[in-house]
Amino acid sequence: MPKVTMVQALNMALRQEMEKDDRVIILGEDVGLDGGVFRVTDGLVQEFGEDRSVDTPLAESGIVGMSIGMALYGLRPVCEIQFSGFSYHNFHQIENHAARLRWRSQGRFQVPMVLRTPYGGGVRALEHHSESRETFWSHIPGLKMVIPSGPRNARALLVSAIRDPDPVIFYEGKAIYRAFREEVPEEEETMPIGQSQRVKEGKDLTMISYGAMMRPTLQAAETLQEKDGIETDVIDLLTISPMDDTLFVESVQKTGRALVVHEAPRTLGPGAEIVSRLVEKAFYYLEAPVARVTGFDIIIPLFSRENAYLPNVHRILRAARKVMSS
Amino acid sequence: MPKVTMVQALNMALRQEMEKDDRVIILGEDVGLDGGVFRVTDGLVQEFGEDRSVDTPLAESGIVGMSIGMALYGLRPVCEIQFSGFSYHNFHQIENHAARLRWRSQGRFQVPMVLRTPYGGGVRALEHHSESRETFWSHIPGLKMVIPSGPRNARALLVSAIRDPDPVIFYEGKAIYRAFREEVPEEEETMPIGQSQRVKEGKDLTMISYGAMMRPTLQAAETLQEKDGIETDVIDLLTISPMDDTLFVESVQKTGRALVVHEAPRTLGPGAEIVSRLVEKAFYYLEAPVARVTGFDIIIPLFSRENAYLPNVHRILRAARKVMSS
Amino acid sequence: MPRKKITIPSKVESLSILNEKGQLDKTLEPDIPEELLLKLHRAMVLGRRFDERLLSLQRQGRIGTFAPITGQEASQLGAVAPLRDTDWMAPSFREMAAELWRGKAMESVILAYGGYNEGWPDEKEHNDLPVAIPVASQVLHALGIAWAMKYRQKDDVAMAFLGDGGTSEGDFHEGLNFAGVYQAPVIIICQNNQWAISVPRSKQTRSKTLAQKALAYDIPGIQVDGNDILAVYAASKEAIDRARAGEGATLIENVTYRMMMHTTADDPKRYRTDKEVNAWKKRDPIIRFQKYLIDKGILSDKKINTLEEDVKAEIQGAVDNAEAMMKKTIEPMDMFNHAYEELPPYTEQQRKEFEEELAEIGKEGNHA
Amino acid sequence: MPRKKITIPSKVESLSILNEKGQLDKTLEPDIPEELLLKLHRAMVLGRRFDERLLSLQRQGRIGTFAPITGQEASQLGAVAPLRDTDWMAPSFREMAAELWRGKAMESVILAYGGYNEGWPDEKEHNDLPVAIPVASQVLHALGIAWAMKYRQKDDVAMAFLGDGGTSEGDFHEGLNFAGVYQAPVIIICQNNQWAISVPRSKQTRSKTLAQKALAYDIPGIQVDGNDILAVYAASKEAIDRARAGEGATLIENVTYRMMMHTTADDPKRYRTDKEVNAWKKRDPIIRFQKYLIDKGILSDKKINTLEEDVKAEIQGAVDNAEAMMKKTIEPMDMFNHAYEELPPYTEQQRKEFEEELAEIGKEGNHA
Ligand SMILES: Cc1ncc(C[n+]2csc(CCOP(=O)(O)OP(=O)(O)O)c2C)c(N)n1
Ligand SMILES: Cc1ncc(C[n+]2csc(CCOP(=O)(O)OP(=O)(O)O)c2C)c(N)n1
Ligand SMILES: [Mg+2]
Ligand SMILES: [Mg+2]
């Protein structure tokens, strides 16, 4: 199996789905010749032509509204919004339409579209290029919100998202686009949307994270094992909404202690929902307050200070030790 | 003191602030001659002229972007978005700009604007006219999110919002626009933004709610007192963000049990943050899981079924009794 | 290039065929078969009478808020008449007559305005989108559909409706720009009924016409007398034919008038005069069209009377059916349907909670 | 109204004064004082050289991503030159030369592109908005400012910049429509540099010019040779004077070219040819303007050399200052500043957590 970056894995997912299914169309700003500003759609216009890889004018509501129309007609549009910081321009098209048209037509129509967009900090970018706002999408009924954490699950989840009969927001962590490689099989691979995954087994502490934050989380887990002898049970959420609480609830029933890590601001970040589900479903097992290691409730600063804003191994360790000692 | 509806109280706040301060300008769709579709701005164009009460073309991003410019120049715009269901059209102007310009200019500029908009169900309205999506705004750093629960606090909070140096999203519960009257003093009254209020004192159970849901919550509190002998401590949040956790944390330290009520969908509704703050700050006092009595994680149905969707006294009582017995 | 006037390839025109008295400009008369003329006439009358009936149902509290279409029958029926079944329509919230023409049942209209999601699905065999309330948003859906039709090499078209107010929204602009760029087979019908709730056309935009906004995208724009069904038909047919032939999008401004309140929640007395309304009464699209049909010898007062009776009975039947459907307690649990293809586990848990709750208090208790 | 062409009151024109060889159309030559001409020339050279220096700083990893302005000096400096200090400017992200003209320090530019929020505030005495990255969003802010100026009965104006790509956004449309309706003193400068990242002008919209989009709002539109600073100046001055006189908004399309990459993160070789770039090199705005000034007898090669030395030293000074500021460890705690006028309690708690954490690991550890 070749070892590829997440960018390459996503490209592979798109290419293979486009080969298989002529309903799959990619569209967005600079997705054609440029291959997308992160090169996720590299080579697709050459392979499939301008009808399958569509450069659009600079208008996000236009891109998403057009995708909705394409999906209603029976296509499977995969649109790219260049940075998640510009996806608020199309927020009304998602809230008012993409998430509702199945319901509004009592099942007559469906909107099987995917909105791919890079999110998160850590790449020394300009303003609006580093936020993590998965909460916005995860609070909208009718929508799905997926965040992969590495090349292999990114590829499998994107394939599943494209085939999903409902609209999916697909956040791609810029920090992990090229940070590491994984083996990704040539042959088809899918992963169920709406299922989290245990990536490390342990009995002392449950750590829940997703996306680019899985890396510092796993690093912290290793240190905890080596330096503190703490065995962590690490859950990768993968889908933020609909949120799968079975694994992390089960885990806390075993460990009694939990910690959540995300880059999104703390207030009403996904961690809030995770804590609430634990209170609802594992209250009597909880031996200590669940910690939230998150972005602060401020706008992420320009890049010279972004590492101070983002959760890192140190911050996670600190919180984990506090949870273990309380 | 005259007894007035919330619509009248809001109108009073606008009129008095406009009289006092020529920087205060109201703008939006149909705010002029029509007085707004709910009549909150009734009579203001006659009194202050078309320069102070500005009918705009039908474009929400335009209204909010224009308000931002006015505020940057030193005015105090109070814009109306006709229904909160159409405020997603201007989401990018709030997220990308209103909430950031103070920060982006290191304090050189500020955006003292108010965005008023009706929210919530219970008035037999058309689609998009009944949602409760305060989470979207409450997750944005730099922004404030206020929801009054009756004529008197609505008036005082709107005055405070207008005078606030930071941008404020001001949700007005349609269901309580005219549902009841309260005495509201002619003379100036303000209320601090960012402070919750205890509206009933009790030792057994903490109930936290806001906006239109305060009414069924208080009704349930009465029934609990009378029928079950349960004394509830009821907190009206008033500001959703920045969230004031002092009162409800203190309350739960006394009662050990809590319940949250809101119309917003459960997943990542404000209740999730409340539960998380309680876990963070009152974990060792909690004797039972905190209950969330909320809208379901689906789009609110058309009005023949909206009462089935919305939390009501019965549903609150059921949850309260369960919390008390666990 | 020193200082020069720029000439723009696209043109903006105006079109009128039947004047306000119902008199015809013969040189422009479209070639419409008699049968279709009479069918259109019937649809106009049905639209008007059903609108009136909905208003009385609303006033009696038997349905909720709705947006009357009276006065705009020609503007919407003339536009959809040249469409085929395989074409798609993306209405706003004021195209009831066009929706009935395309096959929607009156029962569905009543159920939807009665607050029942059951009123929503279009009949399976029709391609029309459900009513879109967020102003102008549907323009983009029609554009996407049109793009897909072109991709699939169909010669079908998509038609979107919106109001004068709708032209101010960003989505209108983005939709028309995309339509121009992709030369998509989409026809944008702007029903300029002079008002966006209380905001008059003159305050909506400084441009003299709405049709001229097409120049920004170099697509054809035409301003049509929207109370003249022949003109609306002719302009739409031309645009549809062009779109089918691969020549792209058109913006059509139908100049008409909202004779009634914006919705039943609105009181137009606050912002407009009776005088203005009365002036427009004289341009009633049905009266004008009837005059034309009578002059043509294919309609008579007697035939009109029979038609009115017929239409009345049809409406009564639909009201009876719809009210019967509403009276049958429709399951509140059904609100959990169609949220996703498959209900997610946590929502399923909420559904169960609600089921238990319902069992406890009885359906009626919670439903009311 | 049978079938008629609609005539539109507003006009769209094109303007060019200095041709590609720097030769002048005397009849159109604007009356600009010598001193101002030379000041503009210096600003163009400074803009170009600073851009080049930023690029080398970026390539050396001393600053982050930025958007070069090379080739667009005339287009932006000609536009802002007629502004007063009390006027406001709302830039996009590609108006560095205009910002320096208006008083921004080069140090601020370096700090901001170096990832320090400290580079952001404009000097207190200037009214210009910070850089707006979300495309076209700033048009509405300028509109609001202009509305407020009119309300305050000032004869000031607001000027917004955006690119050719920006004309596709809904905010552009909403802003221009509002500007028309309120006759607001706002000037919209569209720097049509032929590319929106990799998307060429021809794929951005079907309209032949961007200037003609003004017709949708019945405001004047003019297409200007954006590499001809005299034309840009003349067109902007005219528009500004009209706005001051209460005659409302203007859309100006400056036809220019983005000579460099979109930003330093971009590789234009993927989507455009050297041939195209080279063709535009011949229209270099600085060379054309220099030719004019030399012909006029107020500039010489020798003066140019002195100026270049001078500018180089000025830039070096700014780079040194800025790098010194960056090197001084700038407090990471400061990221909590300016979130609100007063930090809310829960955020204050987070600030304290962070403070403890910093104390534990030392500033450098976490900051890097
Ligand atoms: C995006 C959006 N904003 C506001 C509204 C509220 N609203 C409903 S209809 C309407 C006026 C529409 O005017 P116009 O486009 O002329 O259509 P008409 O109602 O006249 O048919 C408004 C403001 C809405 N439905 N959608
Ligand atoms: C709303 C929004 N969408 C996307 C982007 C990403 N982006 C930055 S610049 C750019 C192209 C802008 O082109 P144009 O308006 O012509 O300006 P230019 O860069 O050529 O100066 C894009 C797509 C953005 N900044 N804002
Ligand atoms: Mg209208
Ligand atoms: Mg450009």
| Beta-strand content estimate of chain C | 5-15%
Largest interface: A-B, 46 and 46 residues
Overall geometry of chain A comes to globular
- Flag low-confidence runs of chain C: none
Strand order of the largest sheet of chain C: 2-8-9-5-4-3
Helix content of chain C: 40-55%
Sketch the major β-sheet of chain C: 6 strands, parallel
- Count of domain modules of chain A: 2
Mean pLDDT of chain C: 95
- As for the CATH topology of the largest domain in chain A, it is Rossmann fold
Provide key terms for this protein.
heterotetramer; A: 326 residues; alpha/beta; Rossmann fold; 2 domains; seven-stranded mixed sheet; five-stranded mixed sheet; 12 helices; C: 368 residues; six-stranded parallel sheet; two-stranded antiparallel ribbon; globular; binds thiamine diphosphate; binds magnesium ion
Task: Describe the fold and architecture.
The complex is a heterotetramer, with 2 copies of chain A (326 residues) and 2 copies of chain C (368 residues). Chain A has 326 residues and is an alpha/beta fold. Chain A has 2 domains: 3-183, Rossmann fold (3-Layer(aba) Sandwich), CATH 3.40.50; 197-325, Rossmann fold (3-Layer(aba) Sandwich). In chain A, 37% of the residues lie in helices and 19% in strands. Chain A has a 7-stranded mixed sheet, with helices on both faces. Chain A has a 5-stranded mixed sheet with strand order 9-11-10-13-14, sandwiched between helices. In chain A, helix 7 links the parallel strand 6 (144-146) and strand 7. Chain C has 368 residues and is an alpha/beta fold. Chain C has 2 domains: 13-327, Rossmann fold (3-Layer(aba) Sandwich); 332-367. Chain C is 45% helix and 10% strand. Chain C has 13 helices and 9 strands. Chain C has helices at 34-59, 73-80, 96-102, 106-113, 137-151, 170-182, 201-204, 229-244, 274-281, 285-295, 301-327, 345-361, 363-367; strands at 4-5, 12-15, 88-90, 158-163, 186-192, 195-196, 199-200, 221-225, 250-255. In chain C, the strands form 2 sheets. Chain C has a 6-stranded parallel sheet, with helices on both faces. In chain C, helix 1 crosses helix 2. The radius of gyration of chain C is 22 Å and the shape is globular. The structure holds thiamine diphosphate (2 copies) and magnesium ion (MG) (2 copies). One thiamine diphosphate (TPP) sits between chains D (94, 133-135, 162-166, 193, 195-197, 258, 262) and A (29, 58, 60, 82, 86, 89).
